[in-house]
Amino acid sequence: MSMIVVVTESVPARLRGRLAIWLLEVRAGVYVGDVSRRVREMIWEQCDLLREGGNVVMAWATNTESGFDFQTLGDNRRVPVEFDGLRLVSFLPAEK
Fold first, then answer.
1. Backbone dihedral region of 67: left (phi > 0), alpha (psi from -120 to 50 degrees) or beta?
2. Which end of the chain has fewer beta carbons closer than 10 Å to its terminal beta carbon, N or C?
3. What's the number of CA atoms in the CB half-sphere (13 Å) around residue 27?
4. Digits of tens for pLDDT over the chain (96 positions)?
5. In angstroms, rounded to a whole number, what is the distance separating the alpha carbons of residues 29 and 82?
């Protein structure tokens, strides 16, 4: 079991409702919980299937240098990048 955090933006209500089955919604679009790897992967599949035009980021505790890992779905200015074995976030230029 490991702690996960899921943050959603502009996703349909049915995805938000589905996430609320497994996780606690502590703020609008912000979910936390302690789940197994299998459940985490199933939640991610649901996010991928139901997000429509929205975006999602999931972060979870793991045994890495930073102590966590994360993945994203959908368009966002923040883009994950690999740098010397660390996962960091780069910002795309603002649209004009």
1. left
2. C
3. 6
4. 999 999 999 999 999 999 999 999 999 999 999 999 999 999 999 999 999 999 999 999 999 888 999 999 998 778 888 888 788 888 878 777
5. 26
Q: To which H or E segment does residue 39 belong?
A: helix 37-50
Residue-level length of the chain: 96
- Global model pTM greater than 0.85: yes
State the fold for domain 2-91.
Answer: Alpha-Beta Plaits (3.30.70)
Domain ranges of the chain: 2-91
How many helices, marked H, and strands, marked E, lie in the chain?
2, 7
Q: What six digits make up the tokens of 1?
A: 């079991």
- Give me the sign of the Cα torsion angle 68, 63, 88, 38: negative
Structure tokens that stand for 2 in this block: 């490991």
